[in-house]
Every structure is written in C-alpha cells, then in structure tokens.
Amino acid sequence: MTAADDAYVDRQFVELGELCRRLGRAPDEVRELMLARLLPLPGYLRSDGAEMVPADLFALADAAGGTDRLRAWFLRHWDDPAEGEEEWHAYLSGQYVCLHAVSPTTIRRKGDLVAAIDAALTAADRDSPTSTTSLAALVDELDLLEPEFTAYDRLRFGGPVSRDTHVTALRAHRPPVSAP
After folding, report:
1. pLDDT at 131
2. CA 139 to CA 177: how far, in whole Å?
3. Residues 114-158: tens digit of each pLDDT
C-alpha cells in the first residue's frame, strides 16, 4: 500500500487494537474469532502492518445475538442458500470494503443497484428522459453506499471497482447522470 492508500484507510477504518481498547475487548480474542471464521478478517493491512477494520466490526454479531449466531442470522437474509453462503464467505474475507456499512441489507442493495444500472444501460429506451432520470437515481444511490476505494483496491481486485464502472464512468460519459 502507498502513503495515499494508508491515508485513505486511516480515514475510513480503525486499527483493530484501538477499536478493541475503546470497546473493552482483547485484540487476541478478536483475532481468534476472525481465524475461527466468526468475524471478518481486517479489510486492510496498512503498510506498517496495522490491522484496519470497520468501526462497526461487531455490529452484525451484536444484531445476531453473538458471534456464535452470526452465520445463521446472516444466511437468513438470502432466499438462495448458495448465494447466502457465497456472501458469507465474502463477508468473512474482510474484503467487503466496497460499502460504507456492511450488512446483508447493504450487500443485497448494492447487488440490486449494479444489476439495475446494467439493465438500464442496455434497455431499448435507455436514452429517453424517463430512463435517464431513473438511471441517475440508481447511480446516486450506489454512490451513497460506496466509499471511494484506494489504488490498492484496484490492484487486489484485478481492475476497476464498481464505483469506477457504475458511478464515475457513467457520470463522465453520460452527462445526465449527475452527482448529488
């Protein structure tokens, strides 16, 4: 990670040890929960090795009634068990850095928005004023869900991220898609 990546991560995330100190948790116990696949891994390792996690790292476990109930609670948010498992594994990987707040609701909404934007771009009436307005609303909503990302994210995910393809590029090439 570069100095710019580190600065971005410092603005968006918190160091695991600091979060644990604030919440009265033992960092080693939290790491054990991560390795036991009961909490997500850190989203980033800063260039100095600091483990960076979202400030709401424990929010889903708290909502579920504890880390031992989190998986079942999480999976109940999907009708398709295979899709739920896929999202559970993505969540545990710590690489769900594409949302300001990670939850089954925001994960699903992001997927729905990306699919709706793709459909709107290929619709026969995509250039009509109604379609353009609808597309702009979808892009604006996705923009609110997603952070800016880092150059490092583009490397680790193998190219452009959804913000690049479904927000920034659309606003650059389709002037009616305005920023909020």
Report:
1. 83
2. 7
3. 999 999 988 888 778 888 889 999 999 999 999 999 999 999 999
CA distance from start to end of the chain: 30
pTM recorded for the entire structure: 0.87
Output b/e per residue, 4-32; b: 16+ Cβ within 10 A.
ebbebbeebbbbbbebbeeeebeeeebbe
Which of 113, 98, 88, 86 is closest to 44 using CA atoms?
A: 98
In the prediction, which pLDDT does 130 show?
A: 81
Residue 167 CB: number of other CB atoms within 10 A? 24
Instruction: Record the tokens describing residue 130, joined without a space.
Output: 């109604």
Domain ranges of the chain: 3-97, 105-173
The Cα 152–Cα 122 span in angstroms is: 31
- The single-letter DSSP state of residue 72 is H
Residue 33 has pLDDT above 70, yes or no: yes
- Residue 124 CA: distances (Å) to CA of 82, 133, 134, 170: 32, 15, 14, 17
Q: Quote the Cα angle for 136-154-92, to 5°.
A: 95
SS3 content of the chain, % helix, strand, coil (to 5): 60, 5, 35
